[in-house]
Amino acid sequence: MHEAPKDTFHVTCFEASNRIGGLWPIDKVDDEGLVNPDMCVNQSRHTVSFSDFAWEEGKASFPKAWEVGKYLERYVDKYGVDIKLESRVMQTEMKGARWEVRVRERAEEKVCVLSCVLGFLICKSSQAFKNLRLQPQDLTQV
Question: Whole-model pTM?
């Protein structure tokens, strides 16, 4: 999607927590994440990475948890993803050629109408990242 002409796609990410990264701490002294910032991840940085965004040179093969949080922040900074914080996806439903996505945003529920839904990534297991390899024919066109 990053190679598509500018403004072809508007990507929105719904994040249930109040910050980027969910359980991942974003600095060495972060106590808001569910993981100790100093913990080493149990998969190499080559496994916990996006296919279009490399880790910085010189990082350990098994980074600290806070470095994973920083990696996620760098990704958002580079690609300008629209992240809706404190927004939990409750339901998705195809309505004609569009998707209705019911979201609980903070204390309020609302429905977002999207032209396509590429996929959902639920990070509740040790497999925190997944590379989606979609072809143009996989997208729902409007």
Answer: 0.69
